[in-house]
Design a protein that fits this description.
single chain; Rossmann fold; six-stranded parallel sheet; 7 helices; 6 strands
Length: 236
Amino acid sequence: MKALLKYSLLCLLFTGISCGEAPENKKAVTEDPGSENVENNGDSKSGKVILFFGNSLTAGMGLDPEEAFPAFVQQKLDSLGYEYTVVNAGLSGETTASGRNRLPWVLTQDVSVFILELGANDGLRGIPLEETRSNLRAMIEQVREENPEAAIVLAGMQIPPNMGPAYTREFREIFPTLASEYETALIPFLLEDVGGIPELNQDDGIHPTKEGHRIIAGNIWPVIEEVIRGKDSILP
């Protein structure tokens, strides 16, 4: 990746389970969530920040950070002249409960756009749906409290029918329902055209390959571009 790429990385990957217990990210920075000594390759304090807050899907489990979809979003931003810095705050194994606990530290910086990509691990573990819903709701409200000007984007997720059709259906509906309730932007399904396709996923069948991440970036780009155009149009 070119040196001028403004890709900021907060890879906080610890030993533990991920969405599918795949190998750890190749370039993990293992730090305590409260540590200030985390790799950050961009000057996120001086410009507008797009922060991806998620689990191993956001972190790019099993790949180099430059091969995860937040990096491809940064490339798209740069190619179109948008002056935004992408921060990857993905953490392998993150549930909505642990994300809710980690969020205050992440929000120590100003954020222009906050993408919330959590819930997949809850669904795969069969965590009660009301707990997942409550945690997502609390995180949306905390972002609004700490960064009132930040636009929030909720990443929709679906899970296999292992937990039964009722659980699977209600899990899927959590995301559009919350997006409507809080009037946030919504990525209908993060893994559209990637999930369940063997050649676009690593050997675990859960974590996308580099090409899978490229497709994910394409899925979410129209939503992000609409959000940042809306924000930029109201700037003085």
